[in-house]
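Appendix C: a fully annotated inverse folding record. The material below is reproduced so that readers can follow the format used throughout the book. The structure is listed first as tokens, followed by the designed sequence.
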């Protein structure tokens, strides 16, 4: 079977392709040419292993892309935004399937968390920092919690900021309820794209992840959600419970913000301002509609 059919066949069979893949794929295709030039130029200045954190920003920031994303396309705006504010910024690719380029985050999420663990170690070794801060989109905002909880990440991470993270899974506006009507579909999805299956509400992965509480001591958690999210639904399931958690709804900061699941990470400077505040709360300023121009 061709690699592309390996990815999209189970999605099409379940009608999940429309909600999960169509928009991200279109976005990635539109960004491909620009991403190539950015990567050739050193990813716009991020992933610079000679960067040394400053006294003002003593921790490197690791950006964790979402499902069907990658280390470049997902961060063409946020990475330069943070770099321009004095951060050492890094991003990784994870969750690759054999023979499937560009579109990542499809492998088993526990394995992806191991890849994140190795990458954080690499960043800390290069920068000399004791801890990193993590900023993730969608699966990239949820997957690090496995690293924090089960792989020793809590000792190496100061803060986790999630942009539209599927912390308690998604029902894709009810589409996952169709799974029982397609005999063998759930098994096919798990076998071919386990990273997608792991994100469905009630999956074994999410049951393990959230058992005993959403958070671990010592890590500062921020969730930034949008009520217009069409992928992680219901959107309130993105929120975390526990100590040292701040759950934020974009529309409470700016009622005019219409960002949905992708826009919140791709170009929403209101969300970016809130990310910057979460990374440096001692110097944070109020996020408003005017933050779009900051």
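Designed amino acids, in order:
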């Amino acid at each position: 079977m061709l690699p592309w059919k390996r990815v999209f066949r189970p999605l099409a069979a379940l009608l999940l392709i429309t909600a999960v893949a169509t928009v991200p794929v279109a976005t990635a295709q539109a960004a491909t040419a620009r991403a190539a030039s950015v990567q050739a130029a050193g990813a716009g200045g991020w992933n610079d292993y000679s960067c040394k954190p400053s006294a003002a920003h003593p921790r490197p920031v690791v950006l964790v892309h979402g499902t069907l994303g990658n280390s470049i396309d997902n961060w063409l705006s946020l990475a330069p935004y943070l770099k321009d504010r004095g951060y050492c910024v890094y991003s990784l690719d994870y969750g690759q399937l054999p023979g499937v380029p560009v579109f990542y985050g499809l492998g088993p999420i526990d394995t992806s968390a191991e890849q994140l663990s190795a990458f954080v170690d690499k960043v800390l070794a290069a920068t000399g920092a004791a801890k990193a801060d993590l900023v993730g989109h969608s699966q990239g905002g949820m997957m690090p919690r496995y690293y924090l909880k089960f792989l020793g990440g809590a000792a190496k991470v100061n803060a986790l900021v999630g942009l539209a993270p599927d912390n308690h899974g998604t029902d894709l506006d009810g589409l996952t309820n169709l799974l029982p009507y397609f005999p063998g579909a759930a098994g096919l999805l798990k076998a071919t794209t386990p990273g997608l299956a792991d994100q469905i509400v009630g999956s074994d992965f999410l049951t393990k992840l959230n058992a005993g509480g959403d958070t671990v001591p010592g890590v500062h958690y921020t969730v930034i959600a949008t009520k217009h999210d069409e992928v992680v639904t219901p959107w309130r399931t993105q929120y975390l419970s526990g100590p040292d958690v701040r759950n934020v709804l974009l529309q409470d900061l700016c009622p005019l913000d219409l960002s949905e699941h992708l826009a919140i990470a791709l170009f929403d400077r209101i969300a970016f301002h809130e990310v910057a505040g979460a990374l440096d709360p001692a110097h944070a300023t109020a996020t408003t509609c005017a933050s779009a121009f900051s």
